[in-house]
Amino acid sequence: MSSEDGEEVFDVLSEGEEVFAPPESFKEQANAGAELYEIENYQEYWAKEAEKLDWFEKWDQTLRWEPPFAQWFVGGKINASYNCLDRHLDSFRKNKAALIWEGEPGDERVLTYNDLHRKVCKFATVLKNQGVQKGDIVTIYLPMIPEAVIAMLACARIGAPHSVVFAGFGPGSLAQRIENADSSFLITADGYYRRGRLIHHKNKSDQALEQTDKVEQCVVVERCGLDVTMNRDRDYWWKDLMSEVKCETPAVKLDSEDLLFLMYTSGTTGKPKGVVHTIGGYMTHVTSTSKYVFDLKEDDTYWCSADVGWITGHSYIVYGILSNGATAVMYEGAPDYPDNNRTWEIIEKYGVNIFYTAPTAIRSFMKHGKKYPQSHNLNSLRLLGSVGEPINPKVWKWYHKNVGNENCPIVDTWWQTETGGIMLSPLPGVIKTRPGSVTRPLPGISAEVLDEEGEPADSGYLAITKPWPGMLRTVYQNDERYKKTYWSKWDDETYFPADGAKIDEDGYFWILGRIDDVINVSGHRLSTMEIESSLVSHSDVAEAAVVGGSDDLKGQVPVAYVMLQEEAENDKLNNGEDEELDFFNADLEEELKDYVAEDIGAIARPRDVTFVPDLPKTRSGKIMRRLLQDITEEEELSDTTTLKNPEIAEKIQDIYC
Ligand code: PRX
């Protein structure tokens, strides 16, 4: 694939020869120094970083490690909302912009730290008045509007953990998360704008609430003035509740290990797991890494284009950025709406200094061509970041040249929902970068590349070999799954992230992507099993297998192989002839794609749905997804001898092609 400027966009991830040294001018002013790579005692290092936060009471023990369970800053008392807001109010930051928000239609709101504090205190009062208590899990299903941040910080203020569900997820995903978290309080919105369309968000919430009866109260933010149905016994308008209360709820003194939030993420089973993050360690990790990795300075304007509904938004739009007292840009809509200038217009208009985005977005910028960034003044930029998937060296270089004007260090940051914050990334101004490599573990983080047996290897699996403060504490109400998923590949002291990795002779790490049944669609993590479960819940479907197909722009896309129920097969695939089934039905294919998109969300929509007479299975009945992957990628079929039904692979190949 090539862009309209004629540049080749994609090639295989190669190690590349080039080395990029940080510009001298950047080096001189960088927050990080070379001494950070010399840390001898990781616990002392993190304790020093933790001291930069405001604690009501200091901890007695930095780390209590009972593998694989960790507690950080044991005995310390802290509040995340206080650290993001109150502590800035005694200085000039009081009237500094905390959030600069832009809606897709072009409307703007600027909230200073004082404004944000007032709104958060008020909404915290609302939560209390409505009966939310410490420990109650509040589900937040909001689009990219300031109320999402206000709601999160209000929950944090009173010790009610939040579970934010990405607004792009469908009713099925929302209901599943509400059920698992046993959450009786939901915050949603009437609608929002996306690519010029008005999305009826309240309808999606209502559909979810038909699938679960857990929710007793639902607060609705008015974003678009949509006419929505309000259930009188359950639904309240945000603005009505806010108009009745005063700004009077102080930040509660919470335990360092109290729950801050749950974030559901896809694993290798059909059910997403509730990743548990607690206050003290998480806040230490994200505050410290924001400062060093993004080189945050007092007068910076920082823009992370992720959604607050993902971990990137939690850590690097909200908690890590606001605790540093920085100014964050938040944008509601699509990066290319109404045209390909939008992203660059935002950078130019607000004088963005630090821009953090995903390779999938950069690939799409590249496809449209350099004329768009080049026709804007992007001189304010001084640092660029990348997250969510491996960045191809060519894409890295395009970003460096055409967005960064060869003058901005790029931080390619590896981390996960489970790690809470960035784990491997260049320290900008300190380390030389190589396109495609995340360079080295950050200070205080111990990572290695290990083989199957747990021995150090040049190529194998990424492993984290010491606990770190932002680490997940468990899987919500499922310690067994926590142990099994993350701490049993080698031993219970070595964390297994399920990413392949290489390490080169300079000790630089190269992340190769997931090695499990998780696929990465536009930097969003999806489980193939989750999509399979959704397909199987359709009345016509008997069995389904989903694999990731390569896609130039999105990285990967779901590709589904579906066996129909016998009746549906006879009715819908026989094409009027009783004998031979025709494994093609365009209407049903579309119906199933829409079904998944509505159930889970648009990102899960399969690119192809292929009807098959059977699925390749091992003798023990396990679906051999590897074979389906070969078929999808049009590669030679791997070994079929262990199959119970070896003839099926070629048959599916014929149907797919
Ligand atoms: O495969 C890795 C990939 O994204 C996964 C984590 O996804 P999620 O929990 O949704 O968090 C995404 C944002 C932090 C990882 O297991 N990944 C993330 N960052 C990178 C990456 N792969 C390569 N390079 C990265 N910089």
From TrEMBL:
Highest taxon in the source lineage = Bacteria
This protein's UniProt keywords: Acetylation, ATP-binding, Ligase, Nucleotide-binding
EC number of the protein:
6.2.1.1
Question: What residues does the AMP-binding enzyme C-terminal domain cover?
Answer: 530-622
What top-tier enzyme class does this entry carry? ligase
Q: Any transmembrane segments, and where?
A: none
Domain Acetyl-coenzyme A synthetase N-terminal, chain residue ranges per copy = 39-84
* One BP term from GO: acetyl-CoA biosynthetic process from acetate
Q: Which Gene3D superfamilies match?
A: 3.30.300.30, N-terminal domain of ligase-like (3.40.50.12780)
Identify the InterPro entries for this entry.
Answer: Ac_CoA_lig, ACAS_N, AMP-bd_C, AMP-bd_C_sf, AMP-binding_CS, AMP-dep_synth/lig_dom, ANL_N_sf
Stored Pfam families: ACAS_N, AMP-binding, AMP-binding_C
Start and end residues of each AMP-dependent synthetase/ligase domain: 93-467
Report a single Gene Ontology molecular function. Answer: AMP binding
Q: Name the family the entry cites.
A: Belongs to the ATP-dependent AMP-binding enzyme family.
Return the PANTHER family for the record.
Answer: ACETYL-COENZYME A SYNTHETASE, ACETYL-COENZYME A SYNTHETASE 1
In its UniProt entry, what is this protein called?
Acetate--CoA ligase
Name the lineage.
Answer: Bacteria, Bacillati, Bacillota, Clostridia, Halanaerobiales
